[in-house]
């Protein structure tokens, strides 16, 4: 990766810990987006529409947080965003499969089901972002 470490990395000195800190913040913010959309548009359009709206808002917020505070790379904004979104599309796919199962088959409320799914998608996110989204070729 090129560019200086983000401010959080200068403080904690471990990219995994910085990722975890931002990940917790991002998870709370993303879950808040889901709850907000579920309590508004979800009542009209359903929980799958909630998932899509929350996905867009969460990805944009997460991209800025990770790029600014953890990975601190320069250039390639659109390429990084596309790579970042590709990881989140995997999480969205997992979410789109699990959410109806937990809501329709297990009878959980959408917000409760989403709270359980967050644990799975967090692991996908960490592995994908740390190894793909913000990766840069080593400079010789």
Summarize this entry quickly.
Helices cover 81% and strands 0% of the residues.
What does this structure look like?
This protein has one domain. Helix content is 81%, strand content 0%. It contains six helices and no strands. The model has no long low-confidence stretch (mean pLDDT 84).
Strand tally: 0
- Work out the helix count: 6
Stretches where pLDDT is under 50 for at least 5 consecutive residues are none
Overall form: elongated
The helicity comes to: over 70%
Secondary-structure content class? mainly alpha
- Largest sheet entry: none
What secondary-structure arrangement, pairings included, does this model have?
Elements: H1 7-12, H2 15-39, H3 42-45, H4 47-71, H5 77-105, H6 110-133
Features of this protein?
140 residues; mainly alpha; 81% helix; 0% strand; elongated
